[in-house]
Amino acid sequence: ECTGGMWVEADANLSGSESLARQLLLGRRFFRKHFGPHAETPVLFLPDVFGYSAALPQLIHEAGLKYFFTIKIGWNQYNRLPYDSFWWQGLDGTRVLTHFSTSPELGGRYASTYNSQAVPEQVLGCWRTLKQKELHDNVLMLYGHGDGGGGPTRVMLENLREMRSFPATPQVRQASVGAFFERLEEQSERLPVWDGELYLELHRGTYTSQARNKRANRKSEMLLHDAEFLASWAWLVDPDGGYPSGGLSRAWELVCLNQFHDILPGSSIAEVYLDSHAQYREVEQLAQHAWKSAFERLSAELGGAVVVVNPTAFERNDPVFVESPVIKLEGVPMQPTEGGAWISVKQEPYSLKPLAAGTPAPLSEEPARAGEGFLENAFLRVELDEAGDVVRVYHKPARREVLGAKAELLLFEDRPLNWNAWDVDIYYDERSWTAEPASSIQVVEEGPLVATLEVRRKLFSSTLVQRISLGHSSERLDFDCRVDWHERHVLLKAAFPLAIHQSQASFEVQWGHVYRPTHRNTSWDWARFETCAHRWVDLSEGDYGVSLLNDCKYGHDVQGSVVRLSLLRSPSEPDPDADKGEHRFVYSLLPHFGPLGVKTIKHAYQLNDPARAMRGSGGPARGRRPLVRSSRLEVLVETIKRSEEGDALIVRCYECQRTRGQVALSFDFEVGSAFRVNLLEEEPRELKVEGHKVYYDFRPFEIFTLKVVAR
Q: Could you confirm whether 84 is annotated as catalytic?
């Protein structure tokens, strides 16, 4: 039976938004190419994955699949999911028929397994642990040597043959996964609904282990996003120049391969990461080649001494780094810095902005400033104590203190009972230490565009160099960290006690966000003592909130008013040298008015995908409208690429604020026709087009893919 649905059995916590879409696109196209269009079973089959994003039901539907199967959720540490079969409802309300196997491992140690030996004890246990016997009489049991391969043995097959009509066991029959779900669907009218994510109460350490690999994943995702955007634009402007589909496809296959659920989570042996890092280098080379080739084709038409590329869906005015030798730019504020200069220039979404050489202009806004133990701009006053900890963040427009106590770096003893690289156990924070006081604090950038303090300190046997920065144009406070890490069984977290009271926090997941409790009222609450988020978490009251952003981290916990980000672990098994050595990462604090809004999402994109300033082709600077722009801030353009088949532009968007309405997408070119398609770029539904605009009616958290043909 051909089943799976994805390129690999991918981790569903850490893989990015577009990565999950590509897992399904690549996987389904592979099955069709090699086995025919009707060979694949319509099941997303992820037995051993460590938790399941609330975005998955919609992605399953958009990929043309119907069902979802897993086993791992039965491994929950504290709470048993009340159902075995149910309708799983995702962020946007999409429902998929779901089943997870209840077959106990021999000896009954775990609630479920993908390695059943097909012995009578397991068949009996499989039936006895089925919770919904009153609703359906079928349960799926996977058998064979699944973990590590090998499949079923002759003995297993003989056992199954004998238990077809054996009087002391449930009746056994061999059938496909697809046939099981078809029968389950016939009995599905009374099945309950489970709303939201399927959180696995185990393997919480996988959000942090092998941090270099996780950083390479995030950076590869962003680099491919940027390369596809520029390559698509260059292809539209100059079709004869082609589109690097071969190189970009190869790069996506490598990224998706390394999102396998024991590679990206950090639970593989050391040799795996040697291969993985080599493959990420190949991804970088392929994506950079596509990016630079496209930029050269586009910049030749635009002119200018320098061209600034904004690869995000947001307008921005954050400082942009220009490498040496620095060219003075007409009317552009500049600040010399190490290796080049900062410039300040307003940019439109998904745009290229050429800048002419000439006389720089002074900054017209209030500058960013740094002095002994403080940073300041028009929005924030930040103060550090002698130990190098941030003791005050004052938000000037709100006239409000952001912190309830000083922000600290905390180290915890991290000795899980089992599965060293996989787990962080609930008692980890019973023994903790703070970082040593700073050995030095100095001003390294005084402004006016960027102000930076550098803090050097020890973390046991490790060293940390932390550059804390404010740009002139925003409330975002950045912590750029370089760590030489040499700990064993230690977990490092950044903790921010906030002057905020709220019973739930918002966590970014793929294609949206979810709410999780900040209290520990029930066993379901305290079981979530460490959870996964992507670029941000947010804690907000009715009229005010604070977001914690990051550029390559995933593990978080929010307890009461304290928001903590997991930075590094140091497991010793299966890789005895996991995470030793140098690391770099950035996290940021962002206060804001009102509850969670687009502002948090905008700054998270800007942190993860900075604007790039590149040498232009010279000559007069000729402006150009953005490639694509959304009329609604809540509707984000996530992906721009060429279609898999034919000569069309694919634009994948999602709604990010639980709103509904109509959006107009404006393009750089006149649109001939546009269609709403699924993730496979099929099932077209024609949309309203007027000149450069395409109109679409969206619903909350909807992921929608448009296929746009230029006139």
A: no
Half-sphere exposure for 134 (CA within 13 Å, toward CB): 3
pLDDT of residue 150 exceeding 80, the answer is no
**Residue 454 to residues 1, 175, 438, 442, 465, Cα–Cα distance (Å):** 58, 63, 10, 5, 7
Torsion, Cα of 426, 428, 431, 433 (10° steps): -130
Pair of tokens at residue 23: 């897992």
Evaluate the CA torsion angle 500, 505, 507, 513 in order and state its sign.
negative
Residue pLDDT, tens place only, 45-103? 999 999 999 999 999 999 999 999 998 888 899 998 999 999 999 999 999 999 998 75
For the question of whether the overall pTM of this predicted structure is more than 0.85, the answer is: yes
Rounded CA gap, 421 and 439, in Å?
A: 32
String of DSSP letters for 285-309: HHHHHHHHHHHHHHHHHH--SEEEE
The one catalytic residue in 48, 238, 480, 484 is 48
Average pLDDT, the chain: 95
Contact call for residues 75 and 112 (beta carbons, < 8 A): yes
d(CA 433, CA 412): 6
Residues 6 or more apart whose Cβ sits within 8 Å of residue 379: 395, 396, 397, 474, 475
Q: Are 199 and 81 in contact (CB under 8 A)?
A: no
High-pLDDT (> 70) share of the chain, %: 99
Question: Which residue, among 452, 453, 449, has the nearest Cα to 473 in the 3D structure?
Answer: 449
489 close to 413: Cβ distance less than 8 angstroms: yes
The two structure tokens encoding residue 107: 């000896």
Using only C-alpha atoms, what is the Rg of the chain? Answer: 26
Strand arrangement of the beta sheet that strand 351-355 belongs to: 351-355, 306-310, 612-615
pLDDT digits (tens, 9 = 90+) for 498-522: 999 999 999 999 999 999 999 999 9
Give one DSSP letter per residue of 48-111, joined into a string: T-S-B-TTHHHHHHHTT--EEEESGGGG-SS---S-SEEEEE-TTS-EEEEEE--PPPTTS-SS
Q: Tell me the mean pLDDT in the region 428-442.
A: 97
**How many C-beta atoms lie closer than 10 Å to residue 338's C-beta?**
9
Residue 687, SS3 per DSSP: coil
198 close to 71: Cβ distance less than 8 angstroms: no
Going by C-alpha positions, the residue among 545, 558, 629, 86 that lies closest to residue 350 is 629
> Tell me, what DSSP letter sits at residue 504?
E
Whether 111 has a pLDDT exceeding 70, the answer reads no
H/E stretch holding 602 reads: helix 598-608
Q: How far apart are CA 60 and CA 257, in angstroms?
A: 19
Distance CA 669, CA 648 (A): 12
The Cα–Cα gap between 587 and 566 comes to 11
CB–CB of 669/49 below 8 Å?
no
Q: Confidence band (pLDDT; 50, 70, 90) for 415?
A: very high
- Judged on CB neighbours under 10 Å (0-12, 13-18, 19+), 664 is middle
